[in-house]
Task: inverse folding
């Protein structure tokens, strides 16, 4: 078997988003298989294309999803599987690729006005919903209001203006010098709800033909068939990824190390390392209220310690957490303080705990490793670098307070994270966000103690959040692709776009 070629992309997300570091991707090499001949496809280039469209393509491509999806909630995603599916079905005004380059989607052009406070978008003249209905600026606004995306991103009715059929103008509280990247966010995709149809109608190149919670079959939209295959998305949650790979799926996305080793030995599979998309962070809750640090201890772990955690505590592809991330971009945010706290069981006197969700093996490994390091030489300084108040850090390091890593069910973890009764939490955050202020507000809604009641909006709130979240490691997924089955490109959030004729 010929060795796969190495394709390297240097990626950075600009326009208010974030840097995606250097990613090495393995190019897929075509090989023969039973297929029908596809029509000629235009050449696809760019740093984010990791596999060209093959010359021949099967009638049906099968894609494995790690979670079942509730398509009725589209386009607002709950997990990565939603993002992967929705990206093939629903379109946003603009697209942002893995380099931060903004390209047209539903909007063919945009213009900055009033020094950047007002932005005007002109829709494509040929934009249509699957049922043939023309996409108008008014329908775009209706979509955002129905899905709650407008309110979610602070776009109230006074922010959105329709100028004729195809021009939409958006007014922002502060001037923006570059096109607002939030219009590429998954939840900002445009949909219509139609009586008698169980799923939202979109404008993308594929439309849904059959759907249940475990299986979604999509076919080329009526005006875009031209030899495109049918796509079958199948939920495989709970199955060993190695069995899924053997089950002849054309695309499997996984971070399981054993499965990646297994796939690498398959002569008809190729591996693609996707960009780093998740950061695991340590969040200290019981830190004495003021979270004051001694002058000789700097918040945040040195890179050598983060590299050690990535190497020794994590069993998937990981690296030392590398800035910037969205929580580094909160200077202009006004985060609403928490309005309530939820009571939860407090640890016993003389004990402290680092809580994590039991199903998350990465969080478990990190929490258990930090507990071990806290009891060793330098443990007090380590805990202070993680944001734990000095008195508690000294008590844990001396053995006066017993520190435990505690696994909680998803429901119990949610309640515990909201209450802040544990000493600290290990949790994953999506590294990249097109709307950092929105992401910060969502995090505070999950962990009410991060911005206590009575806090003022603005700088003090931002500093409070910044002193709670301490990055540990970044992780990424890999795509296992049946060789020569499809082309792939990578978007800003490490979600692949399927490229077919």
Result:
């Amino acid at each position: 078997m010929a060795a796969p070629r190495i394709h390297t992309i240097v990626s950075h997300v600009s326009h208010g988003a974030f840097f995606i570091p250097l990613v090495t991707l393995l190019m897929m090499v075509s090989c023969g298989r039973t297929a029908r001949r596809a029509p000629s496809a235009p050449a696809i280039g760019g740093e984010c294309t990791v596999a060209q469209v093959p010359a021949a393509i099967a009638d049906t491509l099968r894609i494995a999803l790690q979670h079942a999806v509730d398509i009725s909630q589209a386009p607002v995603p709950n997990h990565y599987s939603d993002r992967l599916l929705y990206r093939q079905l629903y379109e946003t005004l603009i697209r942002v690729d893995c380099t931060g380059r903004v390209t047209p989607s539903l909007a063919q052009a945009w213009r900055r006005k009033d020094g950047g406070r007002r932005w005007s978008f002109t829709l494509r003249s040929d934009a249509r919903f699957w049922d043939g209905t023309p996409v108008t600026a008014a329908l775009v606004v209706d979509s955002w209001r129905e899905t709650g995306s407008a309110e979610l991103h602070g776009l109230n009715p006074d922010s959105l203006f329709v100028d004729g059929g195809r021009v939409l103008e958006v007014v922002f509280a502060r001037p923006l010098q570059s096109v607002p990247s939030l219009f590429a966010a998954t939840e900002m995709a445009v949909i219509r709800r139609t009586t008698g149809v169980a799923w939202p109608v979109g404008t993308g190149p594929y439309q849904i033909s059959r759907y249940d919670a475990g299986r979604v079959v999509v076919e080329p939209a009526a005006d875009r068939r031209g030899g495109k295959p049918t796509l079958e998305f199948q939920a495989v949650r709970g199955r060993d990824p190695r069995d899924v790979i053997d089950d002849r799926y054309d695309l499997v996305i996984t971070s399981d190390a054993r499965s990646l080793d297994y796939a690498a030995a398959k002569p008809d599979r190729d591996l693609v390392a996707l960009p780093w998309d998740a950061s695991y962070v340590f969040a200290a809750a019981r830190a004495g209220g003021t979270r004051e640090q001694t002058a000789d201890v700097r918040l945040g772990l040195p890179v050598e310690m983060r590299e050690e955690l990535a190497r020794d505590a994590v069993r998937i592809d990981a690296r030392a957490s590398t800035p910037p991330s969205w929580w580094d971009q909160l200077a202009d945010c006004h985060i609403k303080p928490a309005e309530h706290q939820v009571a939860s069981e407090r640890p016993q006197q003389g004990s402290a705990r680092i809580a994590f969700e039991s199903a998350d093996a990465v969080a478990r490994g990190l929490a258990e490793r930090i507990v071990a390091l806290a009891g060793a030489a330098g443990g007090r300084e380590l805990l202070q670098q993680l944001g734990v108040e000095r008195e508690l850090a000294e008590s844990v390091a001396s053995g006066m307070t017993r520190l435990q890593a505690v696994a909680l069910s998803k429901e119990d973890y949610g309640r515990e994270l909201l209450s802040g009764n544990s000493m600290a939490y290990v949790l994953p955050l999506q590294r990249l966000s097109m709307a950092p202020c929105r992401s910060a507000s969502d995090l505070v809604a999950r962990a009410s103690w991060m911005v206590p009641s009575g806090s003022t909006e603005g700088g003090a709130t931002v500093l409070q959040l910044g002193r709670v979240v301490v990055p540990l490691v970044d992780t990424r997924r890999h795509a296992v692709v049946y060789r020569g089955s499809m082309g792939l490109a990578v978007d800003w959030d490490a979600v692949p776009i399927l490229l077919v004729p």
Summary: The longest helix spans residues 361-374.
